[in-house]
Design goal:
single chain, alpha/beta, Urease, subunit C, domain 1, TIM Barrel, 9-stranded parallel beta sheet, 7-stranded mixed beta sheet, 16 helices, 16 strands, binds zinc ion
Length: 415
């Protein structure tokens, strides 16, 4: 909470990139009670607000904080399952599950710290039954815990859907103002269709949000379509037969898609028709290219999605499938992979992520009325594309300050 004497403050930098409006040289952001009150030049904002404390970073760029649309906090840095394929990785992960109790909180704290030091101000975190919600809540970031459930643990599909709705409401009690909890239907291959459908329906009825993993691996595509392959060995469900359709078509049939849904990965087996389904249902996508690369999951057709107007944001996934929790590093990989320029890359890391999560009215760009969620980056001189220089710098450890709701939660610069 901002104390009374610090409720108004000016953050200024040599370059301000609001993302939804033109860059400002020698720019400033006026913050009042945690929210952005004005954006302009330091000269004009300083003149209009005499006596207000100014934090000025002349050599730096000031940008909106990163919005991570798909992450898992609970994986520690070491001990990732080996595996060049998604299914061998998943088998390794399941084998390691009994160890989880002893390491999840510490790993989650470390992952959250890493994200913050890379300028992340909002994180959509997914963990089984919301087990990493406490670490997200104490981290200082704003965010959502997507609470994954696995009906096999719970009873009938109806009981499972009922249980997870109740669990999410229980988890919401006592959370910080900007931390929430919502349901995640883990994936088409782990959650029974009836449980998935019922959970999604009740989410929708309550006006809540939903996260899923979708069309991530070649193994998932085979399992959904034909009912065969390595995932059948791992999740040998007696009543699962191939559906004869793609994971996206299956998710649509199961009523999992809609404007409130964020679907992670969409890396393998996503046809043009599937992209149309995502657009027509207004389903948002979390793009995690490093995780996809590391697990042999292919390349998501993100340019086609953007062209058709699908909402796309960036996600790091977790440490056991990705390199780190630096969303700008993830975005730089996407930019190189798809040939995106700096302006689009910076938007994907910030305002487009917010749009994908349905929170663009609250964060993701530097605009009056939004929360003061920002990062200060020491740029490394590059090819003359200021946005790309900033993304590259932030990807390479150049974030020096992270501010969430006007509060400094990370400051590497001694003032
Ligand atoms: Zn994931």
């Amino acid at each position: 909470m901002a104390s009374a004497e610090r409720s108004t403050e000016i953050f200024a930098a040599g370059l301000v990139l609001p993302v939804t409006s033109a860059p400002v040289r020698e720019g400033a952001v006026l913050v009042r009670d945690g929210r952005i009150s004005a954006v302009g030049t330091l000269a004009e904002i300083g003149r209009e607000n005499p006596g207000v404390e100014v934090r000025y970073f002349p050599q730096c760029a000031l940008i909106p904080g990163a919005v991570n649309t798909h992450a898992h906090l609970g994986f520690r840095r070491e001990g990732a399952p080996e595996g060049k394929t998604f299914s061998s990785w998943l088998s390794g992960l399941i084998e390691r599950l009994p160890e989880k109790e002893s390491w999840t909180p510490e790993a989650a704290r470390d992952s959250a710290r890493e994200a913050i030091e890379a300028g992340t101000t909002f994180m959509a975190e997914s963990s089984p039954y919301g087990e990493c919600l406490p670490q997200l809540a104490e981290s200082g970031m704003a965010g959502t815990a997507y609470v994954e459930f696995f009906p096999g643990d719970i009873g009938t599909p109806e009981e499972a859907a009922e249980f997870i709705g109740g669990k999410v409401r229980e988890l919401r009690r006592g959370l910080p103002e900007r931390v929430g909890a919502h349901v995640s239907v883990h994936s088409p291959y782990t959650v029974h269709a009836t449980a998935a459908r019922l959970a999604a329906r009740s989410t929708r009825e309550r006006g809540e949000r939903l996260a899923i993993h979708l069309s991530e691996s070649p193994e998932e595509v085979e399992f959904v379509r034909d009912g065969t392959g390595p995932l059948k060995e791992i999740f040998s469900s007696a009543d699962w037969a191939g559906q004869g359709i793609s994971p996206v078509a299956y998710a649509e049939k199961t009523e999992l898609l809609g404007p409130e849904t964020i679907a992670a990965h969409l890396a393998t087996g996503v046809s043009e028709g599937d992209v149309d389904v995502l657009r027509d249902t207004d389903t948002a996508v979390a793009h995690c290219p490093r995780s996809n690369r590391n697990l042999g999951c292919g390349v998501s057709p993100v340019p086609q999605m953007l062209e058709k107007g699908v909402r796309v944001g960036m996600g790091t996934d977790g440490l056991w499938s990705s390199d780190d929790l630096n969303l700008f590093a993830e975005t730089l990989v996407a930019a190189k992979l798809h040939g995106f320029g700096g302006a689009l890359a910076l938007k994907l890391a910030t305002v487009r992520g917010a749009r994908a999560l349905g929170i663009e009215g609250e964060t993701g760009s530097l605009e009056a009325g939004k929360w003061a969620d920002l990062a200060i980056v020491e740029p490394s001189p590059g090819a003359g594309d200021p946005e790309m220089e900033v993304v590259e710098a932030a990807a390479g450890g150049g974030v020096v300050v992270t501010v969430v709701g006007g509060e400094l939660i990370y400051n590497r610069i001694e003032e």
